[in-house]
């Protein structure tokens, strides 16, 4: 791994932490989670942008497969590794520590770190980054809206549906194809394992999201009982 990439990761950890502290200062009456989600939203937008910028050929966005990573691809991955390290530590200070979230962060850091260490399969890695992060702003928007007082409103339902649709398209259409080409190409076994693991996790989350949306609509369509004062 090039020293400049390592420096970028360190700079990223410091920058994301600074941004979080600034957000806490800017919104002192908002929760820890609210401020962290604002930072996460900014990261998701930046990660998707850097991923798209790093595409070498828009006629075949996933190619070249199993090849040496470009500097733009390495930079995109490094920014996200820095964020994941920040967010992992940040999660430890939250009121409710979610073990599954910590494991997800650790696995992601190992996977992206492996890609940076190998300096290989950059096309597959940034594609995975784009697929996983493209729905994240809408995920965080759902929770942010709840804290702003829009829970159980049409606005919040729209955010739920938008998140579910984008997640489903990215993870359950783009994801399986990306997993297939990653497993088929001559990639390191660790990268293949990470690709398969990511798709399995995505399928599990898809199931939970589908249940959540069904519950939302069933609750919304349930007739309200009006109690008489007689």
From TrEMBL:
Record-annotated membrane-spanning stretches: 6-22, 34-54, 74-93, 157-177, 189-210
Keyword Protein transport: no
Membrane protein topology class: Multi-pass membrane protein
Domain named TLC: residues: 29-218
Keywords, ordered alphabetically: Membrane, Transmembrane, Transmembrane helix
InterPro entries attached to this UniProt entry: TLC-dom, TLCD5
Descriptive protein name: TLC domain-containing protein
Matching Pfam families: TRAM_LAG1_CLN8
Main location: membrane
Keyword set includes Manganese: no
UniProt cross-references to PROSITE patterns, sorted A to Z: TLC (PS50922)
PANTHER family linked: TLC DOMAIN-CONTAINING PROTEIN 5, TRANSMEMBRANE PROTEIN 136
Any one GO cellular component localisation term in the record: membrane
Subcellular location: Membrane
């Amino acid at each position: 791994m090039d020293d400049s990439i390592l420096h970028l990761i360190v700079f990223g950890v410091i920058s994301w932490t600074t941004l979080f502290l600034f957000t806490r200062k800017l919104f002192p009456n908002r929760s820890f989670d609210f401020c962290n989600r604002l930072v996460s939203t900014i990261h998701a937008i930046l990660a998707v942008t850097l991923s798209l910028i790093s595409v070498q050929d828009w006629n075949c966005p996933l190619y070249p497969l199993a090849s040496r990573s470009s500097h733009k691809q390495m930079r995109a991955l490094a920014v996200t590794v820095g964020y994941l390290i920040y967010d992992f530590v940040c999660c430890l200070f939250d009121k409710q520590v979610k073990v599954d979230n910590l494991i997800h962060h650790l696995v992601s850091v190992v996977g992206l770190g492996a890609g940076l260490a190998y300096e290989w399969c950059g096309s597959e890695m940034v594609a995975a980054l784009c697929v996983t992060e493209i729905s994240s702003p809408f995920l965080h928007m759902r929770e942010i809206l709840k804290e702003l007082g829009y829970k159980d409103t049409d606005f919040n339902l729209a955010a739920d549906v938008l998140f579910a649709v984008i997640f489903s398209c990215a993870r359950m259409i783009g994801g399986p194809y990306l997993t297939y080409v990653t497993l088929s190409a001559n990639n390191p076994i660790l990268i293949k394992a990470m690709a398969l693991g990511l798709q399995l996790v995505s399928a599990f989350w898809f199931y939970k999201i589908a249940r959540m949306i069904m519950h939302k609509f069933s609750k919304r369509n349930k007739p309200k009982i009006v109690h008489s004062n007689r």
